[in-house]
Amino acid sequence: MARRLKPAGQDRSATTGSESPPRGTRLARMPNVDEARSESNGPPVARVEAEIAKAVVGQAEPVRQLLAALVAGGHVLLEGVPGVAKTLLAKALARTLDLRFGRVQFTPDLMPADILGTSVYRAQSGTFELRRGPIFTDVLLADEINRTPPKTQSALLEAMEERQVTLDGERLDLGRDFFVIATQNPVEYEGTYPLPEAQTDRFMMKIRVGYPEAAEEVEILRRAAARSDAHDLQAAGVETVLTRGELMALRERARRLAVAPELLDYVAQLVRGSRQLSRVRLGGSPRAGVALLAVARARAALRGAEWLSPDDVKASAPPVLRHRLVLRPDAELEGAGADELVAELLDTVPVPR
User: Is the model's pTM score more than 0.90?
Assistant: First the structure.
């Protein structure tokens, strides 16, 4: 009989991170993430949220999900209609973490060399010189990635998987902080090239950015009236609140986070259950399970916890699984959506206690 985790009514992990660990988990001393600074200003995720909020109104949950993906070492597909601050969100995130930011506008005539770079012949020296493309950065915004043909889309695959690119037979490292944020418009399909399932699966998360609430929209207008350029992050007062060293320590903390065996079984059941849904033709692969565990651990580490809770897994499931579910044709005709099926899955699979 499986050991019982703390009952939900006694689990304060979602807000404080100070509850007792599940029996049977082994705790190790976590890396120091500038502890004095964390104690005075709150958990890392709260500090980053507060700083990004100086430029982006609302969108707290997309910010948490972006941070979780970055700490977990994955990449994200950011989906939202035009004008909901997707680009501004990516720029603000990079600034708060002191990471270099690069942006590529994907168009039908974009070529792989426009992203990766190419060798240029120098007549004076009689040699070829490597001219690096915009991919050589930390945070790369691949804007409207579905507007370019698959050949150009695939130029990102090696970079996303191995954090390196190969140019003229030479492998060039992109660094551990390399992070792709690809955006796409969910309502405009004319002139687009939908991402194949195999390529979509490379993204750790698909994050949805929605419309702001009424009060938030008024605040956006107030800021627009007071400041002419919404993308001027310096004028908005956005500053670095997490250094590269702190980000690396957070990644190590997430990697070493204690996980009860029951939660490993819970993650496996969710992924396997996604393949058994009656309205799904293709569900999550084992890679989805690894991604779900990594994102859940990252969320727990960001809020300052020392072990994983079921709430971390449940909060991570929608953005990790939604783009990995391929619905049956009859389900699509009925108007079913991936988020609806993930919610059904979370209601069906028993949560460990």
Answer: no
